[in-house]
Specification:
Layout lengths: L11 H8 L22 H24 L7
Length: about 70
C-alpha cells in the first residue's frame, strides 16, 4: 500500500516515523460516489423554487428600504 504525500513535510516516511506507525497500520478510505445533482421529483423542484422566490422577494424588500450610498 502506498500512502499519500504529506503536505507538511513532503514525504510520507517522515510523517509516519514521527507518528510512530507504518504504512501497514494505516487504512486510507477515499472511494467517493456521486449521488446525483438536482431534485428527485416535481414536488422538490416546486418547493425549491418557492423558497428561492421568497428569499428573492425578501432581499428586494430589504434593499429597497435601505438608502443606497450613491443616492445622498
Amino acid at each position: 500500500m502506498s500512502c499519500a504525500t504529506c503536505a507538511a513535510c513532503g514525504t510520507t516516511s517522515r510523517c509516519l516515523e514521527r507518528l510512530g506507525v507504518t504504512e501497514d497500520e494505516i487504512t486510507i478510505v477515499n472511494h467517493w460516489n456521486h449521488a446525483g445533482t438536482g431534485y428527485d421529483n416535481d414536488a422538490e423542484r416546486e418547493l425549491a423554487s418557492a423558497i428561492y422566490q421568497r428569499q428573492r422577494e425578501q432581499r428586494k424588500t430589504r434593499h429597497a428600504k435601505e438608502k443606497p450610498p450613491w443616492n445622498c
